[in-house]
């Protein structure tokens, strides 16, 4: 079967488990940030393994379930845990969950991730203004299905400027000003070398991570608006004199978790006014 039919099946499978709910905002929650899904009200939970064609995540710290619930009266659908390129999936498979949310009716996708800071310190939350795609695969490679999107999608405003403005305004309002920068998406799973980080800095990247870029491309392909927020969990390789570890990444993400919840709550509230 083609992707379009698979998407219809996945969305129908979810819809049969969540009744009449029509989520408008989708959330893809990264390393250590997945607990936000637990704050959604009147939640209906669907295990990834129960959704037709859904790829299942294998990384510790990434639960595999979809939580549909409301926030300030707005219906949201949160992917708690995502699959990564380094797990062995190709880019087309990787973006299937994001595409499914949009097929369900989601118009705005909020994508979060953990990232190594090139220009920003650990504990910073960074609004992604743009990205640099360094993945060796592309989610739109292959035959294009015009029912899903155009062959050559524009990426000039891949991260919606209005949503970025909302995020910054909320950051100021809750007294936690947000940073801004370009996210470099790399395949992983090894962290970068110090030389690669110097290269990325020269290229104009503010942070480096192993996710997000494929989903953002797919969301733009389908006409959804994207807000990307990176939690800077560590100084990028070579910038601190310390080795990098997954433990440091999850520890920092956990430390900013309550701020992150407040931020997302307020952002979603403001998005409701759009
Ligand atoms: N590099 C790539 N991905 C990451 C990092 C990093 O330093 N930290 C968290 N995810």
Helix content: 25-40%
| Overall shape | globular
The secondary-structure element order is HEEEEHHEEHEHEHEHH
Helix segment tally: 8
Q: Widest sheet: strand order?
A: 5-8-7-6-9
Ligand species: hypoxanthine
In total, how many domains does the architecture comprise?
1
CATH architecture designation: 3-Layer(aba) Sandwich
Label the structural class: alpha/beta
Distance between the termini: 37 Å
Beta fraction of the residues?
Answer: 15-25%
CATH class annotation: Alpha Beta
Number of strands: 9
Arithmetic mean of pLDDT? 93
What is the structure about, briefly put?
This protein is of the alpha/beta class. It has helices spanning 3-18, 91-94, 96-104, 161-173, 194-203, 213-221, 246-255, 257-271, and strands at 25-29, 41-47, 65-71, 74-80, 108-117, 125-133, 179-185, 207-209, 225-235.
Structure description:
- There is one protein chain.
- This protein has 274 residues and is of the alpha/beta class.
- The chain has one domain: Rossmann fold, CATH 3.40.50.1580.
- It has eight helices and nine strands.
- Strand 6, helix 4 and strand 7 form a beta-alpha-beta unit.
- Helix 4 crosses helix 8.
- The radius of gyration is 17 Å and the shape is globular.
- The N and C termini lie far apart (37 Å).
- The mean pLDDT is 93.
- The structure holds hypoxanthine (HPA).
- The site of hypoxanthine has 13 residues, from strand 5, strand 8 and strand 9.
